[in-house]
Amino acid sequence: MTYQAFYRVYRPQSFREMSGQTHVKRTLQNALLANKTTHAYLFSGPRGTGKTSTAKIFAKALNCEKAPTNEPCNECPTCISITEGSHPDVIEFDAASNSRVEEIRDIIEKVRFAPASARYKVYIIDEVHMLSTSAFNALLKTLEEPPAHAVFILATTEPHKLPATIISRCQRFDFKRLSSSDIVERMKLVLEDIQLPYEEQALKVIAQAASGGMRDALSLLDQVVSFSGEKLTLENALLVSGSISQDVFYDLAAALKDKDIAHVLSLLEELIAEGKDPLRLSEDLITFFRDLLLLQTSGDLEELLELVTPEEKFVELSREFSADTLYGYIDILSKTQQDMRFSHHTKVYLETALLKMAQVSNAGTSNAPQADPALGNKVAQLEKMIFQLKEQLENGATISPSNTPAKEENRQRIKITNGYRAPEGRIKEVLKAATKKDIMQVKNAWMPALNQLQKSQSALFAEAEPVAASSSAFVIKFKYDIHCQMVAENRDLTAAFSQILFQQTGNMYEILCIPERQWTVLRENFIRENGLNSKKAQNTENKVQESTPEAPYIDDVREAESEDPIVKEAEKMFGKDFVEVVDD
């Protein structure tokens, strides 16, 4: 006899042998015992969840010689012939290859004839959603009022494609994806039957790859058994299924905890080089961090783990992350996964997600970043100031300009348009640390970085330019407020742009956006507050000695300050390329 695949040999032959689908089994069995079966059923659900197998078992139970019964005996001639597919009164019809109205009319003509030897004539129509509109119309009247001896069982993976008039004439049963534990238990029975030793973790890997389908799981198990030798091992299951070892995920999570971005990206590069799909990687990472959450929550949830085994090192790893951090990781990966489905650059999206995850603070752990002492002093001073003001108010004192802790300065206010507020405080911090070297490095990488973006994204930077940069961030001035707001609020775009600049410069810059009119006001205020004009004059007079610290460098400010009225007029007349300024 020729070899048969596992999913054919080990197809369930009774309700008792079925995995999962308890709600379907119980309803059908109760109807069989009470003799309250109807004329039309609709079985819908994902592939490999037991729709056709359930239809055959139900057909056997209806026609079993020991009926009424909730289980077919599988011993009488009727049950045996239905199992073998040779019974004339149980007709399997594949709508995918017989979708025309002529085939349905053939069924309609024959359905009125009485069964040859069974109690009911059962029609199992698989992939019924493939029928044409005219075929559905031809079936409609017969499905509504069939002969008393006829039972129709319609099976489909896409019930939304069926006309509402068909669905309303059937009892509908929705089959669910099988749990990993159900699939693992079924595979254990198969391996015990063929007497092949196995590692349980290997079965979990196969169940994870099957995505809730028993047929997919048994087909994959068949491949792994053929590949394996005397024992089914985890290594063989990983190799055949294309899945990833939990140790690789452990290394990746440890690198994220230590914020070792280079190691994270190198691990990702290795996995991509081995042919792993970035979209599948993101799904597996979500499952891995979900398992860490379960380990962190309770030790009684080991049966729910899908990728991780409850070993001590994974338990310790789960404790090194706060719950909020793990939730943040899952949230970032979920959003990235949605974006990846509509892009051909899935690797870039996954790299960006891992960089975001590396920057998530792991609050509540020993590796949490320490607060800046200078920032703590400022907060303490502000708290003290607020306390003094409260005391003055309680004592009935009015707050006059003399009572305020700082002198009020007449300064222009930045106008806020379109609801976007530029991060003024953060930009001023960048200006204080700005250097000519940093802005030149950003400008040199600016155009190559824009060329790597999509055209719709790079168009937003068409009227923008970097104007100041420190070692960790730089400021972009936008001519149009709407472009500034669109870029600033698109976190995925700024993260991708930062990653591209990182590849060009070696620095991971934070991007700060500001409209041109707001930048003009903020720049003037900053120059006045920090006395840049006087510092420049003093440095020029002293020839800028080496011991004199360098003043903050603002690109377009320095250019504006260096303009002499005579030089400016000459440039207007002859052009900048023909004017050269020589200091005597």
TrEMBL record:
Keywords: ATP-binding, DNA replication, DNA-directed DNA polymerase, Metal-binding, Nucleotide-binding, Nucleotidyltransferase, Transferase, Zinc. SMART domains: AAA. Residues 533-552 are annotated as: Disordered. Pfam families: DNA_pol3_delta2, DNA_pol3_gamma3, DNAX_ATPase_lid. Gene3D superfamilies: 1.10.8.60, 1.20.272.10, P-loop containing nucleotide triphosphate hydrolases (3.40.50.300). It comes from the Bacteria. Residues 533-548 have a biased composition (Polar residues). InterPro entries: AAA+_ATPase (IPR003593), ClpA/B (IPR001270), DNA_pol3_clamp-load_cplx_C (IPR008921), DNA_pol_III_gamma-3 (IPR022754), DNA_pol_III_sug/sutau_N (IPR012763), DNA_Rep/Repair_Clamp_Loader (IPR050238), HLD_clamp_pol_III_gamma_tau (IPR045085), P-loop_NTPase (IPR027417). Residues 37-179 form the AAA+ ATPase domain. The keyword Metal-binding applies. It catalyses: DNA(n) + a 2'-deoxyribonucleoside 5'-triphosphate = DNA(n+1) + diphosphate. Its EC number is 2.7.7.7. One of its GO terms (molecular function) is DNA-directed DNA polymerase activity. Belongs to the DnaX/STICHEL family. This is DNA-directed DNA polymerase. It comes from Ureibacillus suwonensis. The lineage of its organism: Bacteria, Bacillati, Bacillota, Bacilli, Bacillales.
